[in-house]
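Hi support team,

I've been running sequence recovery on a batch of backbones for a student project. Most finish fine, but this one hangs at about 90% for roughly twenty minutes before it completes. I'm not sure whether the input is malformed or the queue is just slow. I've pasted the structure tokens below so you can try to reproduce it. Let me know if you need the job ID as well.

Thanks,
M.K.
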């Protein structure tokens, strides 16, 4: 099935979303929305059975944006809609410790054009875990295609992110699905991740091991009235033409803290990547205007490169750079990148059903032929079960 984006489609979607908003108002969550939180658990057994749990899950993320900006001194504007994510999958827990999970990406096409069908496996793995194992309070080890958890924003599922898109520096390092062995463990209040990954890319499923390995280590713990996340990946492969990890190494430090209705995420990412060496800072505060219903989200991001064409990586761009490309202009790449975001999130059923809107200003400086700046207005709907 395919569809071309149009103003009519966008207007119809906006009317539907606004009608849900009006019906829900500030009252209790509708019963149909509450069912989303439990409908995915289709079977639950006990420890004496072969199969303990079967869960199905899915998410649908749609969005629209209008951007107005300048690319290398040339003005442009435009809009487009996108089926950002359409995923479905199943997990099966069996034999008192094993879990098999498969989740598919079902969106195809891209900005302004959508086709629905199998695109790739988002995650596909088999793992085993139990409490009091391998010297930890609890531990799990598995093999397959996993989401690489690197950086505070990437540690948070796309089902629960506070901004319509994650930051450019996050997308530079975190938005990958490598194949490998991953171990999760917890001991004395500290959570650990250890990973050994194939550097070989595979766009659809499990990769081979012909291009060497990358290793990962992460730790999450509480300190200074908040949560700290430390991430490190060593890949030593920045000059490779075709690799999941196009950097030598990268590190990330994240601090999360709640202040009643408010919360704060701060992240610093540093790396060595050939002659580029991206460095980035993200500050993301939020505030509940109406508890559990209406939330304001803000973000400042800055990224710098040792080369004059190093940030951001255009292949993971959204918003203004997608519009620039659609209108036939350079998508921007430079030495310095700054962005300011302000948005509102309305929760009809927590993160299971929410509407999001945002306004973002971005500027890229460095090589004058690649400079870009401008403003983007976003609308988005997020649903999952």
């Amino acid at each position: 099935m395919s569809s071309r984006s149009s103003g009519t489609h966008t207007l119809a979607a906006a009317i539907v979303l606004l009608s849900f908003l009006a019906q829900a108002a500030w009252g209790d969550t509708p019963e149909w929305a509450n069912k989303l939180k439990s409908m995915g658990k289709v079977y639950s057994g006990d420890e004496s059975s072969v199969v303990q749990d079967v869960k199905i899950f899915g998410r649908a993320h749609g969005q629209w944006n209008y951007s107005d900006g300048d690319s290398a001194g040339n003005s442009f504007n435009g809009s487009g809609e996108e089926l950002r994510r359409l995923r479905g999958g199943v997990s099966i827990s069996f034999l008192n410790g094993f879990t098999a999970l498969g989740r598919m990406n079902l969106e195809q096409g891209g900005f302004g054009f959508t086709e629905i069908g199998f695109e790739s496996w988002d995650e596909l793995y088999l793992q085993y875990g139990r409490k009091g194992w391998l010297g930890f309070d609890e531990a799990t080890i598995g093999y397959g295609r996993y989401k690489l958890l690197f950086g505070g924003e990437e540690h948070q599922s796309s089902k629960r992110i506070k901004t319509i898109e994650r930051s450019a520096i996050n997308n530079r390092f975190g938005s990958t699905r490598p194949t490998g062995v991953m171990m999760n463990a917890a001991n004395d209040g500290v959570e650990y991740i250890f990973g050994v990954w194939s550097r070989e890319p595979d766009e659809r499923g499990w990769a081979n091991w012909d291009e060497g390995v990358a290793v990962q280590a992460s730790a999450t713990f509480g300190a200074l009235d908040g949560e700290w996340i430390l991430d490190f990946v060593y890949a030593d492969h920045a000059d490779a033409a075709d690799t999941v990890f196009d950097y030598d190494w990268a590190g990330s430090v994240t601090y999360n803290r709640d202040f009643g209705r408010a919360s704060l995420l701060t992240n610093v990412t540093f790396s060595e990547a050939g002659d580029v060496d991206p460095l980035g800072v993200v500050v993301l505060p939020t505030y509940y205007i109406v508890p559990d219903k209406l939330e304001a989200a803000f973000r400042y991001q800055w990224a710098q490169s040792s080369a004059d064409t190093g940030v951001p990586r255009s292949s993971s761009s959204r918003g203004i750079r997608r519009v620039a490309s659609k209108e036939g202009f350079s998508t921007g790449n430079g030495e310095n990148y700054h962005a300011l975001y302000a948005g509102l999130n309305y929760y009809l059923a927590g993160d299971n059903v929410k509407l999001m809107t945002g306004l973002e200003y971005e500027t890229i400086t460095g090589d004058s032929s690649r400079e870009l700046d401008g403003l983007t207005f976003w609308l988005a709907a997020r649903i999952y079960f």
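--
Follow-up from support: It reproduced on our side and the slowdown came from queue contention, not your input. Residues 2-384 form a domain with the Porin fold (CATH 2.40.160.10). No action needed from you.
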